[in-house]
């Protein structure tokens, strides 16, 4: 991935840092450090604890501080621990939060690259001549929340303005990862005024981890602040369907015993608008419709039988409702039900309508570069016992 072709600027001026167009990196789901800030009676911050990502006491701190419930009145997911707030650190021009997700001493010493997120790309760009705070910036956000929530949109706009101004009004190249593409698409829909007010060239590179796609977009003469237009996200069927049914495992094998468990993550995701917003789009003309295949074991009249059931993009909602009807957690000696959340589903449906109506500025060219060496999860099969 090295080489001057990765350095976004004029070919004749690549050796001059001042002639490099600024780059803004946007993380995807799970790609931002989250801190829990505890407050005193007077509203002062007393302690700050990194709750995502951490290796030591990961699952314990996660359940205590990150588990949340969705508030349909505000549209935000709010942590059950009402004595603290979840925040994303803003250090190092936004790069700290998306660099090494557990930046503790032993992780760096042992070079545990499982938690290295944008680290290699940041090093590569610095090697190309980019400077933090001048031509290189990052944007991490609370990935529990909706991709169109005000806090995320305002934060992205502010960071883009900072990058644009720091580089002397030069174009911004925005590199988004996975769900970061959905975040940028929401921004384009809600802030179209930003994208049509000037004649500056800008580019967007989006790496979709969930679907193993690497998308490259180039736009010109469209935007004053260089807002990246990401891929038209139509959902991540295999991963997101499975997340709502069984959770999400970021680390496999022996290392998973030192990390947040799949079950703990599942209880969080059931209350996260961002997950519902990545369900497969039922209005998209899929080459092969996403589906969940369930084999049900039944016993009738002493005979065991197996029945196969198929659930498409719309019918899968009924399966989610059935699977989560008895889902619950114990928190502070209280039992809290966590069924399939219809309020979030309706919010996500509005997000989907907004994304379906997004129109990109004229003059945009799309280049889709995708890997073929790894299979993308598509169908999810389950065996359900009586």
UniProtKB/TrEMBL annotation:
Matching InterPro entries: AB_hydrolase_fold, LACT/PDAT_acylTrfase
Biological processes per GO annotation: lipid metabolic process
UniProt KW keywords: Acyltransferase, Transferase
Gene Ontology terms, MF aspect: O-acyltransferase activity
Annotated coiled-coil segments of the chain: none
Protein name per UniProt: Lecithin:cholesterol/phospholipid:diacylglycerol acyltransferase
């Amino acid at each position: 991935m090295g080489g001057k072709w990765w350095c976004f600027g004029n070919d004749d001026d690549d050796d001059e840092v001042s002639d490099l167009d600024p780059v803004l990196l946007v993380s995807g789901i799970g790609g931002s450090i989250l801190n829990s800030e505890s407050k005193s009676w007077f509203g002062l911050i007393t302690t700050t604890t990194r709750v995502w990502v951490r290796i030591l006491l990961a699952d314990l701190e996660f359940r205590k501080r990150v588990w949340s419930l969705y508030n349909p009145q505000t549209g935000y997911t709010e942590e059950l621990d009402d004595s603290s707030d979840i925040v994303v650190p803003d250090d190092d021009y936004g790069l700290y939060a998306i660099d090494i997700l557990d930046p503790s001493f032993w992780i760096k010493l042992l070079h545990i690259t499982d938690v290295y997120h944008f680290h290699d790309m940041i090093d590569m760009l610095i090697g190309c001549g980019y400077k933090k705070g001048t031509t290189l910036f990052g944007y991490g956000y609370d990935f529990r929340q909706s991709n169109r929530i005000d806090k995320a949109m305002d934060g992205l706009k502010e960071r883009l303005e900072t990058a644009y101004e720091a580089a002397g009004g030069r174009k911004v190249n925005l590199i988004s990862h996975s769900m970061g593409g959905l975040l940028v698409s929401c921004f384009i829909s809600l802030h179209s005024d930003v994208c049509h007010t000037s004649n500056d060239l800008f580019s967007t590179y989006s790496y979709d981890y969930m679907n193993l796609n690497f998308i490259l977009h180039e736009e010109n003469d469209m935007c004053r602040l260089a807002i990246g237009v990401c891929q038209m996200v139509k959902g991540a069927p295999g991963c997101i369907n499975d997340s709502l049914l069984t959770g999400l495992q970021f680390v496999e094998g022996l290392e998973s015993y030192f990390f947040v468990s799949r079950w703990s993550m599942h209880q969080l995701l059931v209350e996260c608008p961002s997950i519902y917003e990545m369900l497969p789009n039922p209005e998209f003309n899929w080459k092969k419709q996403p589906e969940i295949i369930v084999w049900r074991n039944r016993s009738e009249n002493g005979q065991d039988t197996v029945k196969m059931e198929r659930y498409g993009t719309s019918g899968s909602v009924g399966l989610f409702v059935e699977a989560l009807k008895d889902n619950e957690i114990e928190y502070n000696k209280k039992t809290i039900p966590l069924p399939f959340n219809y309020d979030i589903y309706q919010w996500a449906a509005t997000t989907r309508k907004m994304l379906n109506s997004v129109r990109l500025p004229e003059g945009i060219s799309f280049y889709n570069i995708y890997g073929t060496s790894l299979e993308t999860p598509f169908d999810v099969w389950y065996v359900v016992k009586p």
